[in-house]
Amino acid sequence: MLFVNAGVKNDDRETIADVSTSEFTRVMVTNALSPLRVIETFKDCVTASGTIAVMSSGQGSLTNNTNGNYEVYRGSKAALNMFMRSFAARSGGERTLLLMAPGWVRTDMGGPEARLTIEESIPNLLNTMESYAGRRGIHYLDYLGREVPW
Ligand SMILES: NC(=O)c1ccc[n+]([C@@H]2O[C@H](COP(=O)([O-])OP(=O)(O)OC[C@H]3O[C@@H](n4cnc5c(N)ncnc54)[C@H](OP(=O)(O)O)[C@@H]3O)[C@@H](O)[C@H]2O)c1
């Protein structure tokens, strides 16, 4: 399994209307372009029936974006999801491709008000990932194994 987790966010209050070009570029490059660069670099280390996963976010769902907020971050994770779908179409093969949504978690990024502790999210998220081993195709899942609408 290859699992790409790194990600960043910008200031929550910053909308697409007022984000600077350099900040927009930082978030998009880190969250959308770089995970695909890691995958392109290491994909041959994953067996033909192995799993390639990235840490997406529920915020990347177009369907669930009914209230706005976190505009730049949402856009970067939606772009990540799209690039993974393109990767799946181009070179997914027999592999399992996973886009994971961990919930709102108390990390440096999630902050102290987040709903879930790391212990409440991540073991469940990893169990979900393991339960999808060998299920070819691309799946967008939350930490409890529920499908997230694209
Ligand atoms: N926390 C949440 O509620 C939440 C919800 C949905 C999705 N996510 C996603 O979960 C993933 C992990 O987030 P987190 O909450 O653990 O955030 P975090 O506490 O801020 O940790 C982010 C991690 O990403 C690494 N990173 C950032 N930019 C990097 C770069 N350019 N190169 C290499 N490493 C880099 C950081 O490394 P350094 O410490 O060395 O900078 C750090 O280890 C992210 O993809 C995030 O978008 C988080």
Mind explaining what this structure looks like?
It comes from Candidatus Pantoea symbiotica. This is Short chain dehydrogenase. By secondary structure, the protein is of the alpha/beta class. It has a single domain (2-142), classed as Rossmann fold. Helix content is 38%, strand content 13%. It is built from 3 helices and 4 strands. It has helices at 21-42, 71-91, 118-131, and strands at 2-4, 51-55, 96-101, 137-142. A 4-stranded parallel β-sheet has the order 1-2-3-4, sandwiched between helices. The mean pLDDT is 97.
Number of helices: 3
Strand neighbour order, sheet with most strands: 1-2-3-4
Give the averaged pLDDT, no decimals: 97
Which architecture does the CATH hierarchy give at level 2?
A: 3-Layer(aba) Sandwich
Ligand names: NADP nicotinamide-adenine-dinucleotide phosphate
Query: How would you name the CATH homologous superfamily?
Result: NAD(P)-binding Rossmann-like Domain
Oligomer: single chain
Give the helix level as a range of percent. Answer: 25-40%
Structural class by secondary-structure content:
alpha/beta
Name of the CATH first level: Alpha Beta
